[in-house]
């Protein structure tokens, strides 16, 4: 069941990345960087069997999130919101990767708590992120093409699909 959910997350991530690439890619380099990195990380985990350690992907995603919110030429308020949303997505993806690859049982670390707090925060974060993606989809660029509005919805769906195995498993 988890594999099916992860493949679904990979498909929605790919759809979001394609939309970012199709929608004026020169103006959205930072967003394209995050989308490509997320797609590579998920592809490695889902299709490649995790050849690259999850902690590496998490670190790379956190660096990409910092790059996304670094000061730059975001002329429109909507562009700033999308950069912030993409940066939060990268942080959430890093958390999802780590939560899926560490033992969650009590007593699994020397502090005795395991990864359960990370798992719970990640599940709550994925739900909130999905709601935020739906709101951005409904409100951002209302008169613009669908390709401009679809990435937040696809990213939110991907986060939920990635978090679902944490709930089920």
UniProtKB/TrEMBL annotation:
Superkingdom, taxonomy of origin: Bacteria
Transmembrane annotation, as ranges: 32-48, 54-72, 84-104, 116-138, 150-168
Keyword flag Membrane: yes
Keyword Membrane on entry: yes
Swiss-Prot/TrEMBL keywords: Membrane, Transmembrane, Transmembrane helix
Name recorded for this polypeptide: Uncharacterized protein
Organism: Microbacterium testaceum (Aureobacterium testaceum)
Record lineage: Bacteria, Bacillati, Actinomycetota, Actinomycetes, Micrococcales
């Amino acid at each position: 069941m988890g594999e099916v959910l992860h493949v679904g997350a990979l498909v929605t991530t790919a759809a979001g990345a394609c939309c970012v690439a199709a929608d004026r890619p020169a103006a959205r380099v930072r967003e394209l960087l995050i989308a490509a990195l997320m797609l590579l990380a998920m592809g490695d985990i889902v299709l490649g069997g995790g050849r690259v350690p999850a902690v590496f992907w998490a670190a790379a995603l956190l660096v990409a999130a910092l790059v996304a919110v670094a000061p730059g030429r975001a002329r429109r308020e909507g562009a700033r919101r999308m950069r912030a949303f993409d940066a939060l997505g990268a942080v959430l993806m890093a958390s999802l990767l780590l939560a899926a690859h560490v033992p969650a049982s009590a007593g699994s670390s020397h502090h005795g708590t395991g990864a359960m707090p990370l798992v719970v925060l990640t599940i709550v974060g994925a739900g909130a992120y999905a709601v935020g993606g739906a709101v951005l989809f409904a409100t951002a660029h209302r008169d613009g093409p669908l390709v401009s509005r679809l990435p937040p919805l696809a990213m939110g769906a991907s986060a939920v699909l990635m978090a679902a195995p944490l709930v089920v498993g």
